[in-house]
Amino acid sequence: MLPKKRETSNDLALKLWYSFGTIAALLQEIVSVYPALSPPTLLASAATRACNALALLQTVAAHPLTRTPFLKARIPIFVFPFLNTTSEAKSFEHLRVTSLGVIGALAKAEDTKVVKFLLKNEVIPLCLRIMGTGSELSKTVATFIVQKIMRDEVGLQHICATPECFFQVASVLANMVIALTEQPSTRLLKHVICCYLRLTDDPRAYTAMQTHLPEALRNGTFDNCLRDDPAAMHFLQQLLDKLAGPASVVPRPGPDPAAGGAPHPAPGHGPGGSHGGPSQAGPSHMH
C-alpha cells in the first residue's frame, strides 16, 4: 500500500525515514531475497516484495531532506547485489531496473557528494555492464546515471583521468550505437548522445572523439529515429558541430541535456508481465 502513496504524499520520504523501525524493515525485505540471487531461484512474488521496498527507498533517496542521511547511512550499498545479477529472467530484470531507480534518484540531484559516493563504490562499472547487456529499459536508466555522474566535474574528470577508463566508457557507448542501428530506441539514443556531448567538454576526450565518434552518428543513420524528438536531434547536431571545430579549442560546458529527467518504465515491466501489481515499483517519474 505504501508505494501507492509515492505520487500523492509529499512527505512520505520523511515518514519512512523518521518513523521507528521502518527503514530496518525495508532492508529486511531486501536482504531476505539475497539467497535467491545465486544460484538464480528468485520467484516473481519475492521479486515484487523486494521491488516494493526498493521503490520506497527510491522515494527516500529522491527527497532533499532525506537524501543526505540516506547516503551517510550507506543504504544504497544494499541494492548493489541486484545490479550484479546477470539472469535474464523477468523477476531479475525488474529488480535491476528498480535498483537502478534508487541510484538514479540519487544521481538526479547532481550533488558532488552523491557523485563521489557513487564513484567510490564503483557504480560506473556496474552501469557499463548493464548498458552492454541489459534490456532497453535497464540500459536507458543505467546510461542516464552515467550521464548524470558526468554532468558533475568530478565525475567527468574521473572518467577522463586515464585512457583506460575513458576508452572503457567510449567502447560501451560505441557498441550501444551499433546495437541501436539494428534496434532503434529514441530515448536510449538520446542519453547516449548526451554522454558523448558531455565527454567533449574535456579537452582530452574532445580530441579522441574527433576520430573515434561512431560513423552512424555522423552519416544520418538515425535521422528517422530522431525525427520526432527535436531535442535529441539538437543535441546530436550540437555534438557534430563541436567536433567539427579545431582540436586546439577547449570547449566550454553546455546546458544540461538531462534536464528532462530520468527515464521511467512504461506499464507492463513488472515480474510476470505486470508492473509489480499494486506496488508500481520501478524508477518513478523523475521529471
Automatic annotation (TrEMBL):
InterPro entries listed in its UniProt record: ARM-like, ARM-type_fold, CNOT9
Region (Disordered): 246-287
Low complexity bias (residue ranges): 277-287
Gene3D superfamilies in UniProt: Leucine-rich Repeat Variant (1.25.10.10)
A Pfam family reported for this protein in Swiss-Prot or TrEMBL: Rcd1
Family recorded in the similarity comment: Belongs to the CNOT9 family.
Entry-linked PANTHER family: CCR4-NOT TRANSCRIPTION COMPLEX SUBUNIT 9 (PTHR12262)
Protein name: Cell differentiation protein rcd1
